[in-house]
Amino acid sequence: MIKQEFNRIDPKRRNIVAHKKKQFAESAYEKQEYPHRLNLYELPPTADITLEDFEKWAIDRLRILAELEACSFRNKTPSETAEHIKPLLLKYLPLSPNSSAPSSVAWRDPKLQQERQKDHYSHFILRLAFSSTEDLRRRFARIETALFKLRFQNDDTRERQDFVRSLDFNWETVGDEEKKALATNLRSATPGLKKEELEEGGWFKVDFETVPELVEQRRVFLKAGKAYVPVREQMSMVLAGFTERLDKGLELTSRALPRLDEDDRLTPILTHLSKNFATPDAHISDSDSSLPGAPINASSIDLLSQHFPLCMRNLHLTLRKNDHLKHFGRLQYTLFLKGIGLNLEDALIFWRASFKRKTDDEFNKEYKYNVRHSYGDVGGDATRRGRGYSPFSCQKILTEHPPGSNEAHGCPYRHFSPDNLVALLQATGVNDRDVLCGVREDVAEDKKRYHIACNRVFEYAHKAELRKVKEEGTWPASELDTIVHPNTYFKRSYLLKNGGKVGVEESGRGDEMEM
Amino acid sequence: MPHAVPMTTSPQKEDDDSSLPDAPTPPSDESQGKTEIDKSNNGKTDIKLEDLFNDDDDDEYDDGEETPSSEVMGRELKSSPPMKPLEIAPTAKYSDPEIMLAFYQRLFPFRYLYQWLNHSMKPSKDFGHREFAFTLQNDVYLRYQSFPSSDLLRKDVLRLNPSRFEIGPVYTANPSDRKILRKSTAFRPMEKELVFDIDLTDYDEIRTCCNKANICHKCWSFVTMAIKIVDAALRDDFGFQHIMWVYSGRRGAHAWISDKRARTMDDHRRRALAGYLEVIKGGAQSGKKVNPKRTYNGDLHPHLARSLDLLKGHFQTDILEGQDPWSDNDKAERLLKLLPDKALNDALRKKWDSAPGRSSASKWADIDTLAKTGASKTLDGRALLEAKQDVVLEYTYPRLDVEVSKKQIHLLKSPFVIHPGTGRVCVPIDLRRLERFDPLGVPTVTELLGEIDAWDSASKKPERDEKSKKLQDYEKTSLKPYVDYFRAHVASILKEEKGVKREREDGDPMEF
After folding, report:
1. Domain A34-165+241-278: top CATH class
2. How far is B83 from chain A (nearest CA, A)?
């Protein structure tokens, strides 16, 4: 890869090769070689491949990416994810280390080269497929980065060092004197640092923009715009480099995309690929959560709130207590209510009545618009706004916008202290000691299994009904999966308590709801 | 996550005037052409949901001095201000359109604002592609206004006479052209000052003197502390130099960082920076809100150690004495919840129950006293020390509205506009005199206009020489030191940018 770059002719000096010689000169786009297992994907592939390989390689990679994304939705820890992905990677997208080849050929081993070529090409094919919209680009970049990270972590230490050395990053090393002068700061800024690491390990001095993750978590010492990074945090920097290059590359690809139209063999394949990867969020459908025939209107919310998951229950209780919710709370709750089938008209009635202490004028001026906007009734481009936003998934509630002071949104399992959580559970009728104990364990710092806690409470609250449907076999297995969306919680709870049945035609849509 | 979907539809609240049902119909005869209210939307910018929603209910302008808006719009405005005396009664309301207009005409420092945002005297994209958003007197909100020069900005401000206006990012193209661009990606934010927002309502759970929109000198000390901490981190850790703090007009402060490096940061990096500064996390029910990482020997990150040093003194004077947050024993439970040792807590509770009304300072001292007497056999001294450090941070560390800092696209009220609720000018805060800054002493618009009149009538009688007539209006008022400070701040930015530009031009002489 690096060698290739060397061979390439600088565009400005292209004419140094005499015109006549040029036609006999070796092609600059010769076959690429892959001395390293990892690849920053800086150079696009140039060799020919068959249309069949084109599609097959892309689909294989897509499979991996989809799995990776699913892992992140299910809140799996990095080690669980790695465990889950490992066999799949071996099957669809193997990348063996140099050490696996006979030492006589080392990285030139044809098998290794083939694997690496597939990795390289499939990446670029998917780039083409996923660069069309901002949304796809962002998702693609995020999952590709996750994949790269996974591989980087699992790489052989020596080979990883070789790889890093081959990269052309601008990292300044910190001199011994400076290191000594800053020793105290370096130590206290870098939790978990060992003594040897401080004294003997190398330190880099880079612009703080290079290591946003370390800065965000306050895991690095900063001075005058420079971040002092110990060698072992290299990964963070390599990752940042990877993401940066990928983002730029995607942006460029998207601009070049219209010209691809000329090739009518590729476009259908690419479209097909990107469709399979479409944002599930955009396709949330009514049948996922709405309950035909259920009396869902402004005045029934109080009654229905017994079927709400704890996050929504808490919002409802807070709303009733304060006659008010702060804006992320309103947003989370409005979208949830929309998801259970409350129509806009009723939603406006509900909110108007709930904000008792506001005058009509205040309500109309400050709140009404937001509710209407959540429903896609106003704002934005009429042709594009669709039906407004989708109800938040657990994933979103858990990871985005943690509640600030006096805010009630978020996930109680995650954002409450254990004592307050238990108090809220008891207030909502969960008094079983074993369940409360289990919940405490689930949400503990070292477990962080918030889904499990919520599902535990669900199972407790619907024990009898669940047993019944299981015995009778009236519910398909997919409807008994872990709940990962507040609206799923409501729907199941409502159906269980009202003896309703889950239509088979809906069961396949579970996945779409998860977003 | 697939739900991290960027909004392809851009929810701009101004775009649908039906959203403001009680607003009068927009001005008709005056506002033709490009400043017409956007009725349709192009949906081109990548506006996120949270940006739309972040004009929270606890809006700064919630006490609504509703102004009659009808006459404002029809006014004939000359581009050069008439210099007749203003004859404004001191009792006049500050939100009165005439007063606003006089303020813009005579006092608002358009020229320095232009230089501040443009980073140069010469017209450039930094200003020309910058978004301004006006809130008109009838609460109609106009976004995506842009102006090639300070004169044209001034002209439009005088024409529309907004009750306030906000500053957004520099876009890749002129915001007024955004609808004729072919591709949606061609219009996106490119640069913006890094901004911070501190608002005293975020302190409501720990301040005892006031709540909601009210402030007093006691609770202003929270803002003073916050400014010190954030400013130190921005300068020492991140190496920024051109930082300006601005009083937000009622109960908070904004920071604007104009360093080139800060301006060009993308959202990802902004988020990282905001995360670095954010220490107090958690909602109403989270319990302990400060849980910083420590090294194996209990050291805090240098930023937190420095902050703690800066805050210790404030904690003693401004919190324990000023706020006295745990004087009631009920309230003291909050403190006990943050301490780690149960036996010690029981001993403290017993002691405080027998002496109701014991001051917070004494209670704070009791913790150590009782710990030393061995009230608890299980006591872990280090855990207690760390818990106490966390308490100090929880009660003093800045509570930033970090969402504001995370997005380039976020609009923030311009310096020097009038806060519609208080009539005070959003003046810059001179850090050299930070401790003496008095939010309640900031001049209001009516006072300032009165000062001009007073000056003019005083100077008219003894028929001064030519020179004194050349005084600008702001120089006749108590706004002068603030404008001077702003001018000096702008000058230092211009000086640096000039150097940078020259470097860039001289960089590669061979490159054509």
Report:
1. mainly alpha
2. 38
